[in-house]
Amino acid sequence: MSSYAADVTALAQKDLRLELRARETLPAMLLFVLATLVVFHFALPPGAGDDAAYGLLWVALVFTALLGLARAWIPEREGAAIDGLVLAPCDRSAVWLGKALATFVFLLAAEVVALPAFAVFFAPLHGAAIAGVVLVNIGICTVGSLISAMAASSRTRELILPLLFLPLAIPLIVGGVGSSISPDSGKYLLFLALYDGVFSILSWASFEYVVTE
Amino acid sequence: MALALVLVFFVAPVDADQGISQKIFYFHVPIALTAYACFGTGAWKALRLLMTAEERYDLESYTAVHQGTIFGALTLVTGSIWAKASWGVWWAWSSNQLVLFLVLFLFYCAYFMLRFSLEPGSRRARSSAVYALFGVVLIPVSFLAIRLANDFIHPTVFTRHGAQMTGWMFTAFCVSWAALLLLAYVMYRVEIIGKQIDANLRELRELLTA
Q1: Domain interval for residue A189
Q2: pLDDT of residue A137
């Protein structure tokens, strides 16, 4: 059991270290989310309430996550390292979990900038919304890492990732917006936890089939 | 199959006193249920593929999802027609069934995009199988999500055709549903046979030209 955790940690650390040295994806995600928030200011009509702004926050977060996910498997693909990882004597799902953890950290880093910006530009964020953000992050990273691996082996790579991912992200958006604007936010947080649980298990179990022949 | 179609059209006149616009219900709901059945079958075949790695499951899973998507599209169309007839609008976000089918339709269209963007082979079969499984898990989760979303989108109340059906209507509904399931099954078999013939033909051609 501990060797599984060690594998996952090593893999996640590899991704984080690569990103710290290359500094490609994370700055792009940060700038993208800020630019999107500014665009939303112009997209919202003057009379629109806070509710509409919260909705758009979640759209911005999902699309920023898509940006990060599209780049997630690129190091493995370019060096053909994915074959090496599959051949490595570790559980293949550890590869997925390591990638999901690293993507989670990137997304969190982007949100550390985005959420205060949103609070300044639009409307304040309360505890339930923050909890919603964390839960949606988990959902995006677990499902997204699997879908991104699927898309990485296809001809149309970056094109197909949003197509595959967005229908799966719809429940996440519902849960996230609900936790931000609804008075009964506990219900939505519970739903997000359910989504995370179900799809994490499914992704964990099926990752092996996506990367092997 | 001809008998099934005849039955379907025979059923409708039996309830001529209900009013024309309500009769589409006999098509719309069975089509939706058949679509669910097709997606379920597709996911089951996908699971079998992952468990046993037999090639035929890939074709069967793909065909089942194909049928499901066709029936899903029909659900959306018949649902829109019914919505126009009874509520006066082509689309209603407050209709859970329609929104759920829209999400599923998007999901399974992406399935086909995935399939066409991968080279034929075991990689494509397995990725498609995993995606089909995600689809079937998504059905209840999306349904929950849409119900939750209704709270803050449009809490409209409309009179819903209840599940209480009088004797003849229930019979008509069941016959119609059975007929549509039969239709789906026949289309499924025809498509599989057609694709297998295609594959055999291709193999023969390659042997002849090699």
Answers
A1: 2-211
A2: 92
How far is residue B61 from each of residues A76, A199, B130, measured CA to CA in Å? 30, 21, 11
Question: pTM for this structure?
Answer: 0.78
Closest CA to A34 of A120, A98, A92, A101: A120
Range of the domain at B89: 20-156+166-209
pLDDT-above-90 percentage for chain B: 0
Angle at A171 between CA A169 and CA A176, to 5 degrees: 95
Residue B152: inside a domain: yes
Tell me whether residues A146 and B130 touch, CB distance under 8 A. yes
ipTM over 0.90: no
- Give the pLDDT score at A156: 73
Distance from CA of A206 to the nearest CA of B (A): 6
A194 vs chain B: nearest CA distance in angstroms? Answer: 9
Q: Which residues in A lie closer than 8 A to residue B126 (C-beta atoms)?
A: 209-210, 212-213
DSSP at A73: T
Q: How many domains does chain A have?
A: 1
What's the full length of chain A, in residues? Answer: 213
